[in-house]
Each structure stands twice: as structure tokens, then as C-alpha cells.
Amino acid sequence: MNAMSQEADELAADPAIIDAWVRGWASSREAPPPIPIPGGLRVDVGQPQQRVRYVFPRLDALALQAVIERESEPGAFIKICATAASVKPLLPDHWTLQEPCYVMTVSLEAGSQDARSRVPSSYVISIRRRAAVAFVEILTEDGNLAAKGQMAFNGRYGIADQIVTAPEHRRRGLATVVMRTLEREAASTGVTTGILVATQDGFGLYSALGWNLHSHYTSAALLPLAV
């Protein structure tokens, strides 16, 4: 077990952080507001690849079993703030574990440095708002998308989402500019805590930007049968 796994095993997710993250995620994706259920929240996403997601701030065997008994059709996802090793024994074989992820947080302060000056001269940065969601895009000179991200504001929390850099534009600092710009936008509205869920690939980047590990985040899904 590596040091990151050992540290995460000792961390219990704060339900308030996870509640804020789920509500921000739903706002960011224009999904319906989360619905409280025993032990967690349900989001009726309604998309072809994801009908519904259940999010739990801790591993609750009874709550998990209730979801397993309720769901039988593809497109259902369960998200639990626990290690994959602790979740897997409770899942039937037809539920598929996804790539391990991590909940991360950061403290934000107003007046942070404007990162837009760090965009290479061959790119253009765009910032826009949709209600309580900020969007940052970095475009090439001919208008192609090089990197993007968005952050939903939920009270004192800012939920970073959809952070993507096109493969041919990686290792140029664009993701850093996107994150710093989102953080600055959030802090300017009074947000004091950033939250995101990082993949294994993204964990290193966010750690380098000062984000801290909050908890493990394990996903399981009912996927369509292979044909």
C-alpha cells in the first residue's frame, strides 16, 4: 500500500463537504437537485449513459444494499467515500467498479493572482458565467478548444468539474491556468473552500496546486451487457 492509500484509509469524509459537492455537481451538469435518501443523496441524472447516481459520505452496508435491491437496469451508479477494497465485497458481480478517485479540497482566498497572464501567446482564454457556475475555456488561435473547466458555487463552497485538456495541448500549463482562474472567480464571490473529485491521473496536478486529499471515492456502476 502506498503512502497516499495509507493516509486516505485514515480519513473519514465530512458529510457537509460531500453534500456540497453533490449539489454543486448537479448544478454544474444542469441535473435535477439531489434527493435525500437514507445515508446519502440521489441524483436523477436522466442521461443515456447515467440514469441515476447515489452518493454516500461513508460506507453504509444497509443503505448500499437498499440501492442494489432497487436498481437492476444499466445506467445506475453508486459513489461511496471509502476504499475500493472495502466496497467490493458488498457488491454483486454484475456491479462494475470504476477507476479509483479521490475527494480533494482547498482553502481559497480573495485577491489571488490573476492567472490569465500565464496563458501562452498562441492561446486565448475565455471566462463566462451561467447563474452560479463559472466556465473557463482556453482556445487556440483558430478557435479549437485546448483546455476547459467549470466551477459551481454553492454557498461557501466551489465545486470544480469537467477539467479537461486536449491531449495535443498537455504539458503547457493550461490546466494550471484553468484551475487558478476558476479558484480566483470562486474566491471573488465569497467561496472559501474548493472541492473536486480527482482521478488518479489528476491527483498529482491538484496536489501540486495545493489541493489536499479529503477521502477515497469509489464508484460502481450497472453497465450494459457486452455484445
Name the CATH architecture of the largest domain. Answer: 3-Layer(aba) Sandwich
Structural class: alpha+beta
Q: How many structural domains in the coordinates?
A: 2
The share of residues in extended strands comes to 25-35%
Count all strands and give the number.
12
Q: Compute the CA-based radius of gyration.
A: 18 Å
The CATH class assignment of the largest domain is Alpha Beta
Instruction: Round the mean pLDDT to the nearest integer and report it.
Output: 93
Characterize the biggest β-sheet.
Answer: 12 strands, mixed
Helix content: 25-40%
Assembly state? single chain
Specify the number of helices: 6
Low-confidence stretches: 1-8
For this structure, the CATH topology of the largest domain is Aminopeptidase
Order of helices and strands: HHEEEHEHEEEEEEHEHE
Terminal residue distance: 36 Å
Shape: globular
Protein name: GNAT family N-acetyltransferase
Pfam families: Acetyltransf_1
Give a short synopsis of this structure.
It comes from Microvirga arsenatis. InterPro entries: Acyl_CoA_acyltransferase (IPR016181), GNAT_dom (IPR000182). The protein has 227 residues and is an alpha+beta fold.
Structural description of this entry:
- By secondary structure, the protein is α+β, with helices and mostly antiparallel strands.
- The chain has 2 domains: 3-103 and 215-221, Aminopeptidase; 109-191, Aminopeptidase.
- It has 6 helices and 12 strands.
- Strands 1, 2, 3, 4, 5, 6, 7, 8, 9, 10, 11 and 12 form a 12-stranded mixed sheet that branches.
- A hairpin with a 2-residue loop joins strand 7 and strand 8 (133-140).
- The longest helix has 15 residues, at 174-188.
- The chain is globular.
- The relative contact order is 0.21.
